[in-house]
Design goal:
Shape: globular
Distance between the termini: 32 Å
Structural class: little secondary structure
Strand order of the largest sheet: 1-2-3
Number of strands: 3
Helix content: under 10%
């Protein structure tokens, strides 16, 4: 399911979707609600994901190099093999204690 949270702010919302290897390089996804989405092998290099909700998302092998993750909610998110080199805001992530395989991400 994809659609705006409310048309006044055009916030992207998607839940329970499969987007294998999407290309969001440099995209502004600030505040987006991206819960329960499979973003395996996705490209988010330089993307703005600040304040985004990535609860229970699959970011396995995703390229998040240089992405801004300031204040993003990563509760139960899978980071197996993700590239977080140069990512901003890692010290402000919400729900990191329940994130999976964060220790297996490249930093």
């Amino acid at each position: 399911t994809v659609g705006p949270v409310n048309e006044a702010d055009d916030t992207l919302v998607t839940r329970s979707s499969r987007m294998i290897a999407p290309n969001f390089t440099g995209a502004n996804l600030s505040g987006a609600v991206l819960r329960h989405v499979d973003f395996s092998y996705g490209r988010f290099s330089g993307a703005n994901l600040s304040g985004a909700s990535l609860k229970n998302a699959n970011l396995a092998n995703a390229d998040l190099s240089g992405a801004d993750l300031t204040g993003a909610d990563v509760s139960e998110t899978n980071f197996e093999g993700a590239n977080l080199t140069g990512a901003k805001g890692l010290d402000t992530l919400k729900g990191l204690s329940t994130a999976r395989n964060f220790d297996r991400a490249l930093r």
